[in-house]
Amino acid sequence: MKKIWKKMWKKKSLKMELHAAAKTDLKKNLTSTDLAALGIGAVLGTGIFVSTGVGAHMAGPAVVLSFIVAAITSGLCALTYAELATMFPVAGSTYTYSYIAFGEIIAWIIGWDLMLEYLVSSAAVASGWSGTFVGLLSSAGLDLPKALSVGPSAGGIIDLPAVFIVGLVTWILFIGIKESAKLNNVIVLIKIGVIILFIVLGVFHISVAHYKPFSPFGWKGVMAGASIMFFAYIGFDAVSTAAEETINPKRDVPRGLAICLGVVIVLYVAVAVVITGMVPFKEISQNNAIPDALKRFGINWGAALVGTGAVIGMISTLLVMLYGQIRVFMVMSRDGLLPKVFSKVHPVHKTPTLCTIITGSIAAIM
User: Fold this and answer.
1) CA–CA separation, 61 vs 213, rounded Å?
2) Which of 128, 327, 165, 192 is CA-nearest to residue 246?
3) How deeply is 205 buried, as exposed, middle or buried, from its count of CB atoms within 10 A (0-12, 13-18, 19+)?
4) Which of 1, 159, 171, 304 has the highest Cβ tally under 10 A?
5) Residue 218, helix vs strand vs coil
6) 343: pLDDT strictly greater than 70
7) What pLDDT does residue 141 have?
8) With contact defined as beta carbons under 8 Å apart, do 226 and 5 qualify?
């Protein structure tokens, strides 16, 4: 019993982790720009299209302050991730940090927590993408049968669009991290472009009267909004899972995290200022805030463009979530907490083959 207890709290040394990372077959292709795009791809998604509306109902126009409070908290978390990623430039992220600092049992728990986070997030994003995509098709006069567009819990047989997008993203991740990063970079540019378009269109329809009262629910409302807004920022931790595939992790990981959060904070705050100026906070849609705000002023083409951008943008969020899951899965296997066969890297694509296939399959089933 004493031996088992001792093994449960056994720690990995930094030297062991660095040695394992040095022998990796993964390609080191990523730059700070790629890492920033990975973070933006993960963070800049449903949060800006949905959470803004939810937060506005809690804090009123002061949701701007909610975003800033959440940004400060996220910034402190990012500094921690940047520090640890430069000390331990491996793919395991929080799992690896826990193994070195606390021991095997804590690492095991954290590893499975991360798997649950990434897998459930991937399945949820895929389902959200499917709903938005089917809605766009319907508005264009193309209706998919309910049996093939929603899961059993919603009265269908299979959510085929969700399964398709998971399969497509899994295949891209299998082909290689360089190719995945290039696709993600393009999608992130589209996503940022769509949000900037909304800001430019919306700023001409701001009414100062909508900012009064600025904080109808006081600081209680601001902090309640901040608790929701913090979840809008979650996803930047996936940047640290790419440390092992980064050209210069000690330089590029901190830069990537800083650029990611800098861009996201500016866009979130700008959108919050514009949308609460355009629409009285009680009337902001909690499900489709940005397109709905444009429709109110008859800018239907802008709403359609933003909706299309949201559909495209969700793909990058799904890509980063699946990527993070696969890399944590691989490192746990390499450490012996899962069967070693899972950590084998494809000789041509230089990606963990079984980890990628299994992760994509489970996400598709979910």
Assistant:
1) 8
2) 327
3) middle
4) 159
5) helix
6) yes
7) 74
8) no
